[in-house]
## 1
Amino acid sequence: MTKDEEIERLKKHSRFASTIIHNLVVANQAAWIEWKNGGGSEKAMHWIHNGLCGPGHIPNNSEEQTAQEWFDSNVVDHDQKMTQ
């Protein structure tokens, strides 16, 4: 693979990742708007559920962790990841 081809490949991956992040943020914003406009937490959670369910990311919390425990054990340390 040439240097130019590699640069283009990396740009495509970057655009793909950026699109995913953007769409997740927009879905979270829609959930917040749903809740803020009086739709309630159940309707707001439909936005969150759809964002997770579609790509198969509903968490398997078999250890029955609290939300904070689950987050802490699954979040990626950006600084550590970038140095690998």
## 2
Amino acid sequence: MSPSKKNPETNNLELQFSSDETQAIKRAAAIGGYRSITDFVICSAVKQAEEIIQSQESILSSKRDVQLFFDTVFNAPAPNEKLKAAASCF
């Protein structure tokens, strides 16, 4: 399925490639079995964009998780009576 058929709302983007880049893109599109160079370029760009976004979101989540963990460990509230009672059982 071509990328434009997945989303009926489309936008145009003008790109310019050198001759070498064009040949490499045409060759990769043919080898990859894409219906057109446009499909190849769109699929490749979207895949790369999703990888970059996922990587960045993963890094940000990791930083937040680390901060939350250390805040909880080093700034934990004092144990309440129920926790003290539970701990005394062990």
## 3
Amino acid sequence: MINYDLTDCGRFYEPRNTNVLTAHILQSLADKVDQMAARLERSRGWIMKQALAAWIDQEEERRRLTLEALADVDAGRVIDPCVGPARGRHVDQGAHTGAPLQIP
């Protein structure tokens, strides 16, 4: 088991307001973390915090976009699946005038 101390990054956490997380990871992933840490001259913990923070940001953005899309559906702001591809072909052919297409 490799234990990564995730408490040394002041950018995301106050030093007195931290928590140690332990995860079992594949040796190959641990080796990559070590290589990255050496290349960047940073600690394992710093690498892990950067990765975890980026993943959490990505998941929060994915959730925000999903909720936004669901709100659009609830409000009736949807594209008819039959019209969407036709509009794309129309634009690709260079004939798009900005006028809405007729629904087939």
## 4
Amino acid sequence: MTQLSCLLKIDKTTATKVVQKLIKEGFLIKTKDKADKRSHHLYPSSQSLDIYKEIIKEENKTIEICFKDFYEAQIESVYELIKKMRKNMEEDWYEIKKV
């Protein structure tokens, strides 16, 4: 759960609760690692793969709406600013969590 919580920038407790709920709802499959019985692997279920395309379609539609009437240079500027904001947030998160 440590790798997942670091990837998502959330604490381990929250990651565990979310994963348990997704398993219970049938969106994730959890298996034990064959080499290291303490480790687990998470995989998307067929149910989650079925809705994935719809989620991406909606996300792309939202992005398209957000950038309507933007010039290419403006879109690139927004992208660079968001990258910088993400870096700042990651640094802060790692400092707080001491990861």
